[in-house]
């Protein structure tokens, strides 16, 4: 089965909103054995929606539309759909009750007109209930084709996908299974990773497809396999992964949606260790990432964002003299911060960052992008120097990633 | 002039990568007076790229392609382009030198084959130099149509857009100017905001278009205007903005790309005040957001991520008894955290968060999503209760936004 995803909204064309819905839906369909042939964004115009819907309906088996179902006047998807399927609107009591219940839970007992209009649904449609918002979704089946319409609010669309759409489409899907796995690396540039893997890629591409996807957090290696059954696809992916790991295991910190903070979280739980973090140039990003993981309170003792020298001295016990002699951005201060936060907090491991995030703050010997990352446990304390780029946010990202990667390698006994 | 944006890459269809490039390009074209009619994503397939390019070339004046120009084997855009324009590859010395220089700056003096292949360019193309990576961009003009091809790495594409493409297209653009402005609100749900603005929207939509865009950080109100000249467009936008502000000024914290952390940064600089932050449930996100702003070291004294009770007691001076009597998630502890971090750091203002981010940690009286936000200055200390949702990351986002919004309103003397 082939699918087209149509995402609707002027905000997408004008670039006001980033199209995360398309990538989420693309991923879910691919995993279900439905191949996404194209993704198209059109504006909030009845004509454009109907035109694109016609094209997609003629050329593909499944069409997924999102957006333009909200309670405000600029949302025209519902009327476009009604025209396309030649159907009218009727009041649906189930939807009305669901809207009431949804709002009541949020302490609002009175429905305004915008809220009530959500219960008007296309007569021909099967309803997809929305438990995460007020706009219901719709499903049409005609001439063996499936058209699914969902709101554009990511949480609501995702709720409907997971609660209903994926199951529904899985039962219909007869195509070969597309299976993908992503190996996430960090600490090695794309061209160097490719050089190490060139021969391996050539070999395994006989049965799979390999792509390299670089970002500030590292390079992802994506394996894609197409096979008749899930079992066959799994086996081929496993074989490709094994060959790649033989060459670059050290750099692979996780797979698929695994973030580095999840990986180190599992390792810390497994080893029963606690960490504390002392951040200067990363400004809280490391703590933020660590605490994005549910259950992180088990191993994350505290984070200190010691932006001022006073904070470094007062809460981390860094000596004033050290800062005066070497500067706040130095090996010595990074080490003192990591050791200080570990000892004062009573955690097993301390990590630290100090650097010039930019755009200001550089000196002739300390350019923007210079970052020292410190590590301390009961056996050793050290710091490593890095040169990232000249973009402030990217420097924060890359420094936080490298700090977590150093922690991962230490926890696993991998050379840094 | 009308444009189509074509973004290339299996990773987009399979949902491995979110299409931020399309939104960035859409925004820039709209601002240049070029109207983006559609955005299409296709896979790394020569045929699909050529097919879509044919359609776009026939129907629109400008076609922008990104992606698939990297140094690895899965990048096929260059060969597709060569076929479409019936041209061959030639070695370009300028590009080769630029690649060498780019890599030398990063300490790499030897080029591998992948690097060298970047200097092979379509003979018919005008070259767009890439100072941010190794793959050059290409420009073709034929039959009055413009086709621009750029790499998919966001930083490189953005560099080329800002350095060359926007200027180039501005000179060609003859269309009416599309001007947009976004007013960013927080602390009021979409339906309530719409209710307050319903009559105003009806009135001003005679000369502009209004859209409501909700997210975890608040609801954006987007004004879109089309006019013959930039001056006329500016005047109409200003008029619409004025009418909207008359009704909901209190909730508008910024415009366009302004983030709340930038707004409070400016206010703090203006007033010469310093802040310190004590975070529990937001886990460093507030500090991270504040330090995303260049120059934040001027007013951000420190951040404490007091995840453990020990940290709350040891570094913030919260009394053990208070935590025992009221629990860590309580008005009393939020107030003590905000006051503690302010007094200990010597900052003028302290803000704090303590809550149940989820998915675990809830009790019968303290559900997931319950958050107390504390504020303290020399005149007063208070905390406010919020109920967010059941999603951990969204709770962190919403709590960080509300904490910064409380700070903004206090700094401006707006009622909370």
TrEMBL record, chains A, B:
It holds the Pfam family CinA_KH. Residues 4-171 form the MoaB/Mog domain. InterPro entries: CinA (IPR050101), CinA-like_C (IPR036653), CinA_C (IPR008136), CinA_KH (IPR041424), Competence-induced_CinA (IPR008135), MoaB/Mog-like_dom_sf (IPR036425), MoaB/Mog_dom (IPR001453). SMART domains: MoCF_biosynth. PANTHER family: NICOTINAMIDE-NUCLEOTIDE AMIDOHYDROLASE PNCC, NMN AMIDOHYDROLASE-LIKE PROTEIN YFAY. Belongs to the CinA family. This is CinA-like protein. It comes from Candidatus Chryseopegocella kryptomonas.
């Amino acid at each position: 089965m082939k699918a087209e995803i149509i995402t609707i909204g002027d905000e997408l064309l004008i670039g006001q909103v980033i199209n995360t819905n398309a990538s989420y839906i693309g991923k879910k369909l691919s995993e279900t054995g439905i191949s996404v042939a194209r993704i198209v964004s059109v504006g909030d115009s009845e004509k454009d929606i109907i035109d694109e819907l016609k094209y997609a309906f003629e050329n593909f088996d499944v069409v997924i539309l999102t957006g333009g179902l909200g309670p405000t006047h600029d949302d025209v998807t519902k009327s476009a759909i009604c025209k396309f399927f030649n159907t009218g609107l009727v009041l649906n009591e189930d939807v009305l009750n669901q809207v009431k219940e949804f709002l009541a839970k949020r302490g609002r007992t009175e429905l305004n007109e915008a809220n009530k209009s959500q219960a008007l649904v296309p007569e021909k449609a099967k309803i997809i209930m929305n438990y995460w918002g007020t706009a219901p979704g719709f499903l049409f089946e005609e001439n063996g084709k499936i058209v699914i319409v969902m709101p554009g609010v990511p949480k609501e669309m995702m709720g409907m996908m997971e609660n209903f759409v994926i199951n529904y489409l899985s039962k219909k899907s007869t195509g070969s299974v597309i299976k993908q796995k992503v190996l996430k690396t960090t600490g090695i540039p794309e061209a160097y990773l490719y050089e190490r893997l060139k021969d391996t890629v050539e070999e395994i591409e006989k049965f799979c497809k390999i792509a390299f996807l670089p970002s500030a957090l590292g390079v992802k290696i994506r394996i894609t396999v197409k096979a008749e059954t899930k079992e066959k696809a799994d086996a081929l992916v496993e074989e490709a992964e094994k060959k790649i790991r033989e060459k670059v295991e050290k750099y692979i910190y996780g797979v698929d949606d695994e973030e580095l903070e999840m990986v180190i979280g599992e390792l810390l739980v497994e080893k029963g260790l606690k960490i504390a973090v002392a951040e200067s140039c990363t400004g809280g990003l490391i703590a933020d990432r660590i605490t994005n993981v549910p259950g992180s309170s088990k191993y994350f003792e505290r984070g200190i964002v010691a932006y001022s020298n006073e904070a470094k001295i007062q809460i981390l016990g860094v000596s004033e003299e050290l800062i005066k002699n070497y500067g706040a951005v130095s090996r010595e201060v990074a080490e003192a911060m990591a050791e200080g936060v570990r000892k004062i907090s009573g955690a097993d491991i301390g990590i630290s960052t100090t650097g010039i995030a930019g755009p200001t703050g550089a000196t002739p010997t300390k350019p923007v992008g210079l970052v020292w990352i410190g590590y301390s446990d009961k056996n050793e304390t050290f710091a490593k120097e890095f040169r990232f780029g000249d973009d402030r946010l990217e420097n924060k990202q890359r420094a936080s990633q490298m700090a977590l990667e150093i922690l991962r390698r230490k926890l696993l006994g991998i050379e840094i």
